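Comment on this:
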Amino acid sequence: MSRRIKNRKLLTEINVIPYVDISLVLLVIFMVATPFMIQGIDLDLPKAESQALNKSKGENLTISVSKEGFYSLDLGEKDKVFKSFNKFSEQFLRVINNNPEIDIFIRADKETIYENIIKIMSLVKNYKTDSINLITEPPVNE
């Protein structure tokens, strides 16, 4: 019996197949979950029947307005939340001056004050006269 133990070689390789399987499953989970992650302030969007827009060809900027009147710019990186319209408009102008061809989308909570939306639309119209895109949710069929 001692001969068998001495003649047997130890397997020193790591079996990587389980690690590859776990990595692929995590990759698929993140690929599926990423499009559903919405940046910006958590909002309760109004519901409306409308046609979906075609995908924008270039960069886009999403402006969010909470029901408390906070403004947010989604620049693709970390979101910045502004509590005053003046600070928000300064940052917005910097973004527009750096990229005048950017597409602008507005997300507003359905309970926000109408004046907050008008301020944003007025600011956008002064520097981007082509269009304003409002984001809503489709109505739920009961």
Notes: The chain has four helices and five strands.
